[in-house]
Amino acid sequence: MTKQNKSEQPTQVYLLRHGEVDGPEALNGRTDVQLSANGRQQMHQQCRNLLYLDNIISSPLRRCSDFAEEIARIHELDVQFNPDFQECDFGEWDGIRFDDQSQHWPLMTSFWQSSEQHSPPKGESLEGFHTRVIIAWESLLKSYQNQRNLLVCHGGVIRQVLGHVLPVDWQDGQWYSQLEIGYGSLTRITIPTYAGALPRVDFIGMPADADLGHENFA
């Protein structure tokens, strides 16, 4: 593939969710769990066709940062760590297993069904989380305009970005229950070069085992 002149190249962001983590399924927000061996493989498999990258941006949590540093070495790039791309802080619920029968579980269920009315105790509100992520997202687009960028982050972060660029209600509980952003999945957003261009969502949550060919990653 012949590289375009930078001024003619659209801004592209590949949003890579971290792979499977080491440990039981849990509500891991700020809880700093690490990748499992399978999770690391999922991410490498997903990135096998990302031939050209200009920048790598990552959440500083280990399930993202460990892989970001590996892929950065492959591409001979530095990683830009941004704590505003961390997952939501679930406060007292953070790290609780999904099969946990504790007193928190009914409240956690209410959070996903009506997030704007039920914030995690000592945690982050959905509105606060959304605002944090979108400020960081807009800064990324401004800083890395006309470049091809990889953002290694979390499922909640990707949902907030998609809820910002698409005409949807990101506060609706169905947005979180019906939109699948699996481990190691890839989402791509492109902003064309012409004035007033709206972001284009090319694909959402592509699984790590999908094989669409190099042309889809140009």
Set down the secondary structure blueprint:
Layout: E1 11-17, H1 37-46, E2 55-58, H2 62-75, E3 79-81, H3 105-113, H4 126-143, E4 148-153, H5 155-165, H6 173-178, E5 186-191, E6 200-206
Parallel strand pairs: 1-4, 2-3, 2-4
Antiparallel strand pairs: 1-5, 5-6
Describe the structure.
With 218 residues, the protein is α/β, with parallel strands linked by helices. The protein has one domain (6-217): Phosphoglycerate mutase-like (Rossmann fold), CATH 3.40.50. It contains six helices and six strands, in the order βαβαβααβααββ. The chain has helices at 37-46, 62-75, 105-113, 126-143, 155-165, 173-178, and strands at residues 11-17, 55-58, 79-81, 148-153, 186-191, 200-206. A six-stranded mixed β-sheet has the order 3-2-4-1-5-6, sandwiched between helices. α4 packs across α5. The chain is globular and about 55 Å long. Mean pLDDT is 89; it is low at 214-218.
